[in-house]
Recover the amino acids of this structure.
């Protein structure tokens, strides 16, 4: 028997566990423990929140200790609890973004403080101890092998799906009275909004695109830094104050309308474990420009324009092509709908269930 932990919340990793829960007929344990973890990045060991976290961890370990059979931990930041489990467990690893920040390979989100380093090291130790690891892309699997030294035969790649009920072409008119390109995501450094802003500025310098706006959907980021302030400083330096529209977090239904009416989605991330917005946009009939880094080429296939993540001029040129070449736009839309159709939660659940059966057979 496999017990699936389901994390409440609205993030991509929460959505993953919730969609699996909907499709899998297995025992489930619902918890907000990951939401609490995410809210506590960058707090001090000496804070009240840190003390509450210790108590939360102890209480959650008690819940886990009462389970029988195999446990599926649905994201890498639950690896810290795997270290104390006596039963075998499966863990899904979405990415190693925090690991790269931990090792100072760059700034992908934020360099962790002392407390975060302790917990992140516990997470990666827990990943190594898992009976089986599910990676959500081949890129994440390669990272696990290369950076954590995990043997190939302990890692299974299972792509997430997208919600085709929510994400489909919408015939509702746009809320905006102007043409716009769309960016969906946080303002973490790895999301590379800076490169898009620079490319957009160059595009705006050409008279035929005077009415074009950039619409940014999603929250700025967590408590590690003032990501919105950083974005606004760049926007002001490029004189784009009146050209960028921030909507904040929107519902899936509203996002469908945004995708369907956009000139294109631009997703120039430096690193993604998977990357949902390009597929969601494709399912809505929206052309996509994305970077050629990490998992994105395997996710979008030949259905998007791919550019180097730091190539400002290349991105500006790609934007101009989509905005001016109707045939290219129609080809991308057609290919995108077909590409998005390859990813479903039913398929994700079916492949995950097979892994459950293999682990039960080998470890129980």
């Amino acid at each position: 028997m496999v017990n699936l932990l389901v994390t409440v919340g609205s993030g991509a990793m929460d959505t993953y566990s919730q969609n699996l829960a909907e499709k899998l007929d297995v025992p489930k344990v619902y918890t907000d423990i990951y939401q609490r973890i995410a809210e506590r990045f960058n707090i001090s060991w000496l804070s009240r929140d840190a003390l509450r976290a210790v108590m939360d961890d102890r209480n959650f370990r008690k819940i886990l200790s009462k389970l029988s059979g195999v446990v599926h931990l649905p994201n890498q930041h639950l690896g810290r609890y795997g270290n104390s489990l006596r039963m075998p467990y499966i863990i899904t690893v979405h990415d190693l973004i925090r690991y790269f920040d931990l090792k100072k390979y760059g700034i992908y989100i934020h360099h962790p403080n002392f407390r975060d380093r302790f917990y992140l090291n516990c997470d990666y130790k827990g990943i190594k101890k898992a009976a089986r690891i599910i990676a959500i892309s081949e890129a994440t699997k390669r990272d696990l092998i290369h950076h954590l030294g995990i043997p190939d035969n302990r890692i299974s790649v299972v792509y997430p799906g997208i919600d085709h009920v929510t994400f489909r072409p919408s015939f509702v008119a746009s809320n905006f009275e102007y043409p716009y390109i769309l960016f969906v995501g946080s303002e973490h450094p790895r999301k590379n909004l800076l490169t898009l802003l620079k490319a957009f500025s160059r595009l705006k310098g050409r008279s035929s695109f005077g009415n074009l706006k950039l619409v940014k959907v999603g929250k700025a980021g967590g408590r590690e830094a003032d990501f919105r302030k950083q974005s606004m400083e760049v926007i002001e330096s490029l004189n784009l104050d009146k050209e960028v529209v921030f909507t904040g977090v929107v519902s899936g239904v509203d996002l469908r309308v945004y995708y369907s009416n956009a000139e294109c989605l631009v997703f120039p991330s430096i690193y993604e474990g998977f990357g949902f917005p390009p597929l969601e946009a494709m399912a809505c009939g929206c052309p996509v420009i994305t970077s050629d880094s990490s998992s994105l080429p395997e996710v979008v296939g030949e259905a998007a324009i791919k550019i180097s993540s730091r190539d400002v001029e290349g991105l500006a040129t790609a934007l101009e092509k989509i905005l001016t070449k109707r045939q290219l736009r129609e080809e991308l839309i057609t290919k995108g709908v077909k590409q998005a159709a390859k990813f479903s939660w039913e398929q994700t659940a079916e492949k995950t269930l097979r892994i459950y059966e293999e682990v039960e057979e080998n470890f129980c």
